[in-house]
């Protein structure tokens, strides 16, 4: 985590690296106190040190025992626990810092696998230095006049003094050079009218407030109630050597001179920064634990950073608020740029504070919204929560007297002080919690005029109004923002800046639900959209996603708004509201299960216009833009070494805001594409705008874009640098300094972009250029851009003279290069085809570190692409030159050994590519086609891509016989072994020996409840790649995308993982937790989709593809030689089907393959009862139909009961779903409730409380015996005799007695069968019993247990449930078997 104190002092000179910018301002203002500020910050992982977090609080002895027992089984010998001598040492703790000398990943994994260990993360060290010169702590006299100030841009205007030497990447400073021109201080507490509350006798008494900062000197004259000073650093002092901590404490609790808000509060001073402003994550964790122990009420944290993925830190913040600690934190000093909110202030449960000056202007330095960590989910959230004075605020000097500081680290204690004071005014302190306090602050905040919500949040702190609200507070839920008015400008910017229209991308508003009723809560039923019909509410469609559980104190409600078709030509305002009911366990009554509820309304108002013409609509590709964290993406401008990470989201409402505003002012409508290219209707848009993309492209995206452009869409690409040598230099820096990581791309991912544009004969180079030039009479600056390496000969190319920045970075040589092609314009040849414009640098449209804007160029390019008007200034430019055909620089290749390296290698070996995908079958046959794209196919694709399992060195398997066999195969891959021999004698919960073998290797003692580490390690060996293609209907993940997302898996979350990506790690990165170690089905679906991406398999996956026929053929050689019987190697398969286009069209395809793997699962064809009337329209066979009926409100509490048939888990899920919406249920099934074969009787109660509940209901509440479950009746040992058209259902019991029931709908949930309709006779001839249909349990496909090849049809394989492996943990053994078999065949072919 990058932690740095968020304070900007009034600097008049700034040292940047070795250069000092001269202080002109200082000369102008001789009477002011002048300080020179040198800011240095960086974050570093501490070599060999790891934070080991436990699953609970344990004594030091127990912690040590866990760690030694975990490491006993590993190769790690040289390790020790780092002693921590601080006030928390006497108490149990939930973490330990361990030093492991060897660079041993396996050791870390062993630790991670210990049942009491939650996670292992590197220890981080944080630096920041403020160096005051002249009068660092000069005491200024008090007076009460105001500050006025001007801020100067933090971006250097001249670049001459920045050297690009060997220290290129050292972070030597961060924004600043902000200058104070004239400053006259003011008393902040009185300005906010704290004195009114003081006069009423409220002064903070009885409230415990903690200051996490640089400490406080003993006997400081300003403080009367310092309860405790604690030191968490490695310096043996409690005193403040810097003055920052004293200042912050003073703003909160000083009793004299520059008076704080709550002088009688109990002050707890936590010294977490050294005098050199160094800190470690572990210091914070200990100090946070201690704060929980001490029952701190309010905690000020004037720190922040962009790393929202420092999990130990962020989790601890959640734990603090869950323990009722009100966290107040500074939002960051990275304004005025948007998308610069810092963590943890950007969290829902933390009060994030921005800064204003005493004129009520938003301070220039104050970070602006939206939250960027939520962007992949659709859109960010409104933050800061609130703003208050942060410029020239007076607070306590280090020894006494007063001084002034600026920054959001100053605004934060203003709010923390106010919160402390407010808390002391409330009689019933039980009512005060992080949510209720935040609710009071934001409900009372005063809206600043002319300022938008991403700048001011809810507005300026109003202490007295907050006091009034808090003192009449009743526990309730509330929403932030409390309404959605897309017409309200400027407050609702960016929403108000563009009306909505039919066919546009959904507008997403991310609303925070605050729950003042309790730390946990839930949303009752579902939020409901209520259109106001007289106000045209039915002209919009509103969809919602929301957190089912609210914890701690908060949750989300994402509202997605689109225009209804009927309003496509209409203009006007539409209104309605969303209604949410929140329930929380009643205070002190959690035992009885009683709940309190609160209903909140979210008014919605939008402006609708007729859909604009295509030429005016620009689509911004957000999907392929990535940012730090989780990946390390270097800045686009390499000179910006002070702020090297690309962390602002690259969104039109963050760092591309100026560009967006410009396009709006030019009359364009800009929409955001948050999904792959395959997911939009290109006929709606004039131009697709791709700027600085970092992500890879799916093959079907490449195909789709080509078609779209052929059909008239145009494309503008603003690219950036990508040079592997420069990237390696960054990596080099990483290794030597133990900082940073390997970058995931350069400024942009040019190899991926080149894949996208190569079809038109275009490519960017790996050249890296920089310099000033003039184009079409505009001054331009090229900031670390690339050149165009190839361009069609009939295109227009413009070149410039630039400096070779690559050489400068790598060799410190300055070379000027003439005729560097940087801009290209091209009309594609197909009739009605679109146009393409490429430019090699994005800095000129990016707000972060932009030197000179080039919006004029964007206008000209859009004139060309969207309106087909060639700007003469470009076509007749004197810098026009012949398009390059051969680049001076080679085309960039993906950086080796970075995450994405396996992709090009795989491609080189042979990618099926789009050309394999055509209507006719004239192409070369593929070695393997996999049908289905669920976990079976994904796992097999991983193996076939060259990932090979080896036995990990030093691994010991608990099964001694297997261990002996494994010892013998050390050094060669498991794939090459005699798998039959290895699996001999093993027993497990699958009938397939290789399923048991693979499971035993990966989870050596899984069935015993142990967590022993896998004995396998994986290596990527591209030479063993088997070219293949995966065809599937939906996104990668198969059935998991069809299962209702909020349900919990039956298996442990870890058991659903596939090799190479730990599920737990992935969950952690998503900041999610497992419940009872189980995950939701949505998590699993997302994990598989992500898996395919990060492991570089996506080139092999063609989604949206339905296979309709697979038939064996004779190969041509066999046809010539008809008398010979078919052999496996001679057989070919013809696979036919269609590919669903984004526009909903079906394009047919045909492929030939030597081998076909059936991995189509069993989920697609639900089983039927065979009862009369089962095909009536109110009888359904999928649980998703129940969800749809509930969503569309076709069912409700007053409906006739729904009939649910079945006693499996899906039926149980249906019971729970219906009950959740208070819909009455009749539940019938054939067996007795006590039948040992019922799945409920096999599930441990603790692990599966929800299924246990259903079982209890099934047992206790039959028709005859009434139980506590109103609206539910169970009918065991019954079957359905028939359904009739008047919605009557006849049920029959074991004795033949029939009863008639009126029902609203029936759901037959008794399992499903595979759909093999694409095979002759539905594949029956392949089954164990060829007389019966294929069934995963009773009649799977008859395969060789050691190859999974069909016994009847060589060349045809079956995986997963089709071969009898119904659980994900077992189907992987099948993938191993198929891989081994295919490799063997391949080797035989090669030998032939
Ligand atoms: C409600 C439910 C809960 C479950 N819980 C668990 C659990 O907790 N633990 C566990 O291990 N397993 C669980 N399973 C089982 C698990 O889903 C399967 O074992 C697993 O998904 C099988 O993977 P697969 O890749 O073989 O098939 P699937 O995941 O079924 O994927 C096959 C894909 O192929 C596609 N397809 C089918 N026909 C065609 C065609 N003609 N053309 C193109 N594509 C086609 C299908 O649409 C499907 O998307 C559960 C299953 C269900 C239904």
From TrEMBL:
It is a single-pass type I membrane protein; Single-pass membrane protein. Residues 612-876 form the MBTPS1 fourth domain. GO terms for molecular function: growth factor activity; monooxygenase activity; serine-type endopeptidase activity. Keywords: Autocatalytic cleavage, Calcium, Cholesterol metabolism, Differentiation, Endoplasmic reticulum, FAD, Flavoprotein, Glycoprotein, Golgi apparatus, Growth regulation, Hydrolase, Lipid metabolism, Membrane, Monooxygenase, NADP, Oxidoreductase, Phosphoprotein, Protease, Serine protease, Signal, Steroid metabolism, Sterol metabolism, Transmembrane, Transmembrane helix, Zymogen. This is Membrane-bound transcription factor site-1 protease. Monooxygenase catalytic activity. Involved in regulation of cytokinesis; promotes RHOA activity, probably acting locally at the midbody in late cytokinesis. Monooxygenase activity is involved in stabilizing transient structures between daughter cells, termed intercellular bridges, before abscission. Regulates differentiation and proliferation through the regulation of cell death. The active site is at residues 213, 244, 409. Belongs to the OKL38 family. Residues 870-892 are annotated as: Disordered. It comes from Acipenser ruthenus (Sterlet sturgeon). It comes from the Eukaryota. It catalyses: Processes precursors containing basic and hydrophobic/aliphatic residues at P4 and P2, respectively, with a relatively relaxed acceptance of amino acids at P1 and P3. It is found in: Endoplasmic reticulum membrane; Golgi apparatus membrane; Midbody. InterPro entries: FAD/NAD-bd_sf, FAD/NAD-binding_dom, MBTP1_N, MBTPS1_3rd, MBTPS1_4th, OSGIN1/2, Peptidase_S8/S53_dom, Peptidase_S8/S53_dom_sf. Residues 1150-1363 form the FAD/NAD(P)-binding domain. Residues 204-459 form the Peptidase S8/S53 domain. Residues 45-124 form the Membrane-bound transcription factor site-1 protease-like N-terminal domain. GO terms for biological process: cell differentiation; cholesterol metabolic process; negative regulation of cell growth; proteolysis. It is an enzyme of class 3 (hydrolase). Its cofactor is NADPH; Ca(2+). GO terms for cellular component: endoplasmic reticulum membrane; Golgi membrane; midbody. PROSITE patterns: SUBTILASE, SUBTILASE_HIS, SUBTILASE_SER. Its EC number is 3.4.21.112. Residues 480-611 form the MBTPS1 third domain.
């Amino acid at each position: 985590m990058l932690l740095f104190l968020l304070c900007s002092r009034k600097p008049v000179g700034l040292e940047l690296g070795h250069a000092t910018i001269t202080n002109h301002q200082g000369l102008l203002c001789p009477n002011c106190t002048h300080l020179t500020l040198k800011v240095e910050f960086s974050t570093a992982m501490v070599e060999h040190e790891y934070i080991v977090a436990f699953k609970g609080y344990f004594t030091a002895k127990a912690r040590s025992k866990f760690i030694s027992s975990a490491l006993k089984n590993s190769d790690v010998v040289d390790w020790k626990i780092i002693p921590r001598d601080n006030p928390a040492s006497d108490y149990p703790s939930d973490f330990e810092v361990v030093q492991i000398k060897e660079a041993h990943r396996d050791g870390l994994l062993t630790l991670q696998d210990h049942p009491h260990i939650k996670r292992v993360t590197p220890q981080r060290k944080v630096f920041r230095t403020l160096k005051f010169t002249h009068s660092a702590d000069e005491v200024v006299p008090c007076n009460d006049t105001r500050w006025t100030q001007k801020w100067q841009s933090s971006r250097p205007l001249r670049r001459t003094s920045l050297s690009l030497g060997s220290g290129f990447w050292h972070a030597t400073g961060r924004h600043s050079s902000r200058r104070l021109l004239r400053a006259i201080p003011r008393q902040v507490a009185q300005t906010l009218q704290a004195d009114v509350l003081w006069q009423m006798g409220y002064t903070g008494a009885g409230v415990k407030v903690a200051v996490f900062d640089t400490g406080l000197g003993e006997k400081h004259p300003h403080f009367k109630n310092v309860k405790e000073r604690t030191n968490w650093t490695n310096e043996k002092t409690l005193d403040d050597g810097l003055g920052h901590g004293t200042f912050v404490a003073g703003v909160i609790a000083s009793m004299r001179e520059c008076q704080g808000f709550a002088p009688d509060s109990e002050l707890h001073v936590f010294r977490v920064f050294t005098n050199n402003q160094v800190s470690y994550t572990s210091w914070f964790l200990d100090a946070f634990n201690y704060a929980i122990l001490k029952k701190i009420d309010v905690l000020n944290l004037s720190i922040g950073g962009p790393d929202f993925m420092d999990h130990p830190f962020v989790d601890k913040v959640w734990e603090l608020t869950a323990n009722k600690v009100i966290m107040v934190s500074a939002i960051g000093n990275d304004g005025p740029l948007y998308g610069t909110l810092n963590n943890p202030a950007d969290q829902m449960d933390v009060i994030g504070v921005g800064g204003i000056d005493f004129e009520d202007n938003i301070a220039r330095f104050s970070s602006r919204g939206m939250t960027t960590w939520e962007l992949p989910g659709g859109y960010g959230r409104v933050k800061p929560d609130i703003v208050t004075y942060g410029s020239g605020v007076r607070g306590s000097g280090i020894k006494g007297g007063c001084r002034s500081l600026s920054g959001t680290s100053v605004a934060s204690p203003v709010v923390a002080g106010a919160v402390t004071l407010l808390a002391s005014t409330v009689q019933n302190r039980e009512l005060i919690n992080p949510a209720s306090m935040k609710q009071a602050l934001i409900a009372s905040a005063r809206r600043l005029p002319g300022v938008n919500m991403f700048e001011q949040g809810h507005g300026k702190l109003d202490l007295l109004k907050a006091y009034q609200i808090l003192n009449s507070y009743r526990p309730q839920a509330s929403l932030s923002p409390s309404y959605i008015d897309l017409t309200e400008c400027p407050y609702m910017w960016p929403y108000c800046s563009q009306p909505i229209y039919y066919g546009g991308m959904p507008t997403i508003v991310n609303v925070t639900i605050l729950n003042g009723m309790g730390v946990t809560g839930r949303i009752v039923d579902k939020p409901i959209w209520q259109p106001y019909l007289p106000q045209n509410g039915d002209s919009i469609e509103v969809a919602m996603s929301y957190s089912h559980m609210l914890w701690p104190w908060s949750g989300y409600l994402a509202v997605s708004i689109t225009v209804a078709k009927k309003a496509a030509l209409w203009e006007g305002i539409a209104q309605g509201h969303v209604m949410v009911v929140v329930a929380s366990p009643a205070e002190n009554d959690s035992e009885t299960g009683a709940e309190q509820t609160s209903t909140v309304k979210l008014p919605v108002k939008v402006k609708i216009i007729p859909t604009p013409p295509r030429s005016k609509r620009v689509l911004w590709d957000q999907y392929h833009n990535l940012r730090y964290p989780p990946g390390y993406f270097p800045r686009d401008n390499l000179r910006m070494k002070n702020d090297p990470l690309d962390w602002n989201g690259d969104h039109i409402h963050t760092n591309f805001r100026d560009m967006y505003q410009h396009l709006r002012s030019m009359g364009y409508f800009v929409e955001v594409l948050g999904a792959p290219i395959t997911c939009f209707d290109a006929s709606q848009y004039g131009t697709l705008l791709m700027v600085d993309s970092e992500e890879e492209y799916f093959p079907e995206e490449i195909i789709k874009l080509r078609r779209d452009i052929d059909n008239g869409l145009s494309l503008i690409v603003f690219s950036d640098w990508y040079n592997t040598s420069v990237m390696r230099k960054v990596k080099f820096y990483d290794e030597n300094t133990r900082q940073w990581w390997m970058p995931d791309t350069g400024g942009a991912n040019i190899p991926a972009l080149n894949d996208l544009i190569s079809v038109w004969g275009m490519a960017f180079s790996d050249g890296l250029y920089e310099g000033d030039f003039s184009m079409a009479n505009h001054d331009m600056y090229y900031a670390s851009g690339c050149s165009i390496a190839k361009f069609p000969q009939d295109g227009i190319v413009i070149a410039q003279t630039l400096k070779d920045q690559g050489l400068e970075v790598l060799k410190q040589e300055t070379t000027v290069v003439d005729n560097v092609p940087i801009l290209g314009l091209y009309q594609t040849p197909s009739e009605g085809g679109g146009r393409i414009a490429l430019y090699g640098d994005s800095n000129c449209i990016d707000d972060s570190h932009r030197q000179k804007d080039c919006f004029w160029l964007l206008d000209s390019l859009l004139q060309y692409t969207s309106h087909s008007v060639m700007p003469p200034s470009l076509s007749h430019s004197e810098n026009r030159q012949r398009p390059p055909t051969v680049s001076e620089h080679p085309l960039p290749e993906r950086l080796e050994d970075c995450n994405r390296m396996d992709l090009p290698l795989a491609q080189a070996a042979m990618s099926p590519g789009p050309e394999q995908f055509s209507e006719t079958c004239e192409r070369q046959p593929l070695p393997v086609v996999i049908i289905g794209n669920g976990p079976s196919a994904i796992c097999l694709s991983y193996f076939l891509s060259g990932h090979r399992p080896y036995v990990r060195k030093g691994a010991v398997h608990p099964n001694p016989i297997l261990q002996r066999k494994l010892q013998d195969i050390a050094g060669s891959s498991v794939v090459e072994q005699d798998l039959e021999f290895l699996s001999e004698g093993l027993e497990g919960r699958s009938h397939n020996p290789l399923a048991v073998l693979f499971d035993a290797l990966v989870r050596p003692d899984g069935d015993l409840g142990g967590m022993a580490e896998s004995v396998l390690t994986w290596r990527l060996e591209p030479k063993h790649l088997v070219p293949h293609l995966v065809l599937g209907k939906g996104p990668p993940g198969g059935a998991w995308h069809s299962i209702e997302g909020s349900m919990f898996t039956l298996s442990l979350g870890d058991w659903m993982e596939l090799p190479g990506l730990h599920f737990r790690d992935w969950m952690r990165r998503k900041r999610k937790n497992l419940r009872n170690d189980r995950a939701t089905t949505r998590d699993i679906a997302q994990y598989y989709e992500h898996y395919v991406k990060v492991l570089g398999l996506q080139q092999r996956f063609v989604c949206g593809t339905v296979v309709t026929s697979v038939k064996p053929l004779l190969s041509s050689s066999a046809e010539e030689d008809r008398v010979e019987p078919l052999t496996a190697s001679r057989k070919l398969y013809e696979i036919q089907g269609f590919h669903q286009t984004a526009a909903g069209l079906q394009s047919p395809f045909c492929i030939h393959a030597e081998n076909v793997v059936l991995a189509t699962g069993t989920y697609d064809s639900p089983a039927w009862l065979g009862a009369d009337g089962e095909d009536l329209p109110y009888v359904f066979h999928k649980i998703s139909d129940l969800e749809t009926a509930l969503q569309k409100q076709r069912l409700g509490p007053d409906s006739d009961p729904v009939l649910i048939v079945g006693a499996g888990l899906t039926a149980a899920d249906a019971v729970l779903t219906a009950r959740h919406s208070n819909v009455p249920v009749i539940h019938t099934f054939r067996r007795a409730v006590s039948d040992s074969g019922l799945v409920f009787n096999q599930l441990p109660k603790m692990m599966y409380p929800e299924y246990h509940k259903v079982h209890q209901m099934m047992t206790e509440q039959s028709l005859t015996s009434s139980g506590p479950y109103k609206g539910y009746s169970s009918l065991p040992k019954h079957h359905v005799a028939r359904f009739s058209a008047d919605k009557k259902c006849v049920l029959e019991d074991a004795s033949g007695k029939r009863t008639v029931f009126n029902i609203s709908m029936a759901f037959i949930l008794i399992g499903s069968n595979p759909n093999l309709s694409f095979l002759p006779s539905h594949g029956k001839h392949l089954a164990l019993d060829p007389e019966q249909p294929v069934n995963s349990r009773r009649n799977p496909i008859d395969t060789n247990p050691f190859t999974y090849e069909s016994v009847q049809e060589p060349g045809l394989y079956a995986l997963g449930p089709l071969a009898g492996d119904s659980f994900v943990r077992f189907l992987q053994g099948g993938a191993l078997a198929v891989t081994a078999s295919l490799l063997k065949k391949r080797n035989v072919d090669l030998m032939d």
